[in-house]
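Researcher: We plan to redesign the surface later, but first we want a full-length starting point. Tokens attached.
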């Protein structure tokens, strides 16, 4: 039987660290606007200001999108703390976004 007391989220392991996030969007499309708003709400509620969020319009900065191998929009890249994770969509599935960020509810 596994002892869950030693299992920690990315956030619990690195409370003094800051989430380093990049959200790639497609201009002002409805899905992009929802992704921005949903993600900001989640971060404000669960990350307590310990995050850097860079919002990048893939159409305005295609070089950055190419460098990060962006294949769908909107796409969130969690660069830090490790492990690196990718999330696609409008960030409306709060439990999925929290799991992707490594945050336990």
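Model: Full-length starting sequence:
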């Amino acid at each position: 039987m596994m002892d869950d007391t030693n299992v920690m989220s990315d956030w619990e392991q690195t409370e003094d660290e800051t989430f380093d996030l990049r959200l790639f969007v497609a201009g002002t499309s409805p899905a992009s606007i929802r992704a921005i708003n949903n993600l900001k709400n989640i971060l404000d509620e669960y990350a307590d200001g310990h995050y850097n969020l860079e919002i990048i319009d893939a159409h305005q900065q295609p070089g950055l999108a190419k460098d990060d191998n962006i294949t769908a929009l909107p796409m969130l890249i969690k660069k830090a703390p490790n492990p690196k994770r990718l999330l696609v969509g409008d960030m409306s599935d709060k439990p999925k976004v929290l799991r992707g960020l490594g945050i336990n509810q």
